[in-house]
Design brief:
This protein is mostly helical. It is 65% helix and 0% strand.
């Protein structure tokens, strides 16, 4: 499951081609990937609670956050490119 999500994030990063609108869409795709990554481990992004505590003790949130950081970094460089 994590491998599929990583491939999806990498594929979405290649769609980013420039400008503020594009970088916003790219950030949105990164955030959607982050939410689905956490959901695959039973965690709801932005919340805490007894159901997801076991997952927070694992490395799942760290892996999801790392993947999101890589995706966001790739999006950030597209802000300087001209919007087609």
């Amino acid at each position: 499951s994590m491998g599929i999500q990583t491939i999806l994030l990498l594929a979405l990063m290649t769609l980013c081609a420039g400008g503020p609108v594009t970088v916003g869409a790219c950030y949105t795709a990164c955030n959607a990937g982050y939410v689905s990554c956490l959901a695959s481990y039973g965690i709801v992004a932005g919340t805490t609670g007894p159901i997801g505590w076991w997952a927070w003790l694992s490395s799942a949130p760290a892996m999801c956050s790392a993947a999101q950081a890589v995706c966001m970094s790739a999006c950030t460089v597209t802000i300087t490119a001209p919007t087609p």
